[in-house]
Design brief:
Elements lengths: L1 H13 L9 E8 L2 E6 L13 E4 L16 H11 L3 E5 L2 H9 L4 E4 L14 E4 L1 E2 L5 H10 L7 E4 L3 E6 L2 H20 L1 H5 L4
Parallel strand pairs: 7-8
Antiparallel strand pairs: 1-2, 1-4, 2-3, 4-9, 5-6, 8-9
Helix pairs in contact: 2-4, 3-5
Length: about 200
């Protein structure tokens, strides 16, 4: 699993979604008690290795290691527990942050074929929740859980980034790539649908 975390980080870094040391990934190792492998803090994600991960518990605390997990480890654990996710991906792609800025009460997506890749039907109206940023992972976790819809495997954190999850890292990646496209479309066509002109 740790080698898979490193490979996925390298992919996102190459896409410009994990600039510098930003972003983090996790994968569930076991459910009872909950244990996840999560990328460590402060490592360039384009150069991360399979040694740059740590096992955390349900509170995001390192288990049996002096390695420092990502600052957002607690939210990864909360999402895994509440959503039943097998993997959680957090990146700083620009489109989700811009979309959250325009639609702070949630981003509505509908009538777009790419919604199928995000795990929803193209004719459905999907609302991607947005929460205010916080350095307190309990506060962020509470906000996530309050607006959680089991049909929508994503969370936008205002002026920060996006979390997407799935059964494994591959499904989470596919969902993230499709969601990023959907949000980029939403942002870039905003003026068309609101009747505004540049």
């Amino acid at each position: 699993m740790t080698a898979e975390l490193a490979r996925e980080c390298a992919r996102y870094a190459a896409m410009g979604w994990m600039r510098g040391t930003s972003g983090n990934l996790s994968v569930v190792l076991q459910r009872d008690p909950l244990r996840l492998a999560v990328t460590v803090s402060g490592v360039d994600k384009g150069e991360i290795t399979e040694n740059d991960s740590v096992v955390i518990d349900e509170n995001g605390e390192a288990v049996g290691s002096d390695k420092v997990p990502s600052a957002e480890a607690g939210l990864h654990a909360r999402i895994a527990r509440v959503a039943g996710a097998g993997a959680v991906v957090h990146v700083h792609a620009l489109a989700p942050v811009v979309a959250a800025e325009h639609w702070p009460d949630g981003v509505v997506l509908k009538d777009l074929e790419m919604l199928k890749g995000f795990g929803r039907h193209d004719h459905e109206e999907v609302v991607v929740p947005v929460v205010r940023n916080s350095q307190d992972m309990v506060e962020l976790g509470d906000a996530f859980e309050k607006g959680f819809d089991p049909r929508t495997p994503a969370l936008l954190v205002a002026r920060h980034g996006v979390y997407v999850w799935g059964d494994d890292l591959i499904q989470a990646r596919h969902r993230l790539e499709c969601l990023e496209w959907l949000l980029r479309f939403k942002v870039e066509t905003r003026d068309i649908f609101t009747g505004r002109h540049a």
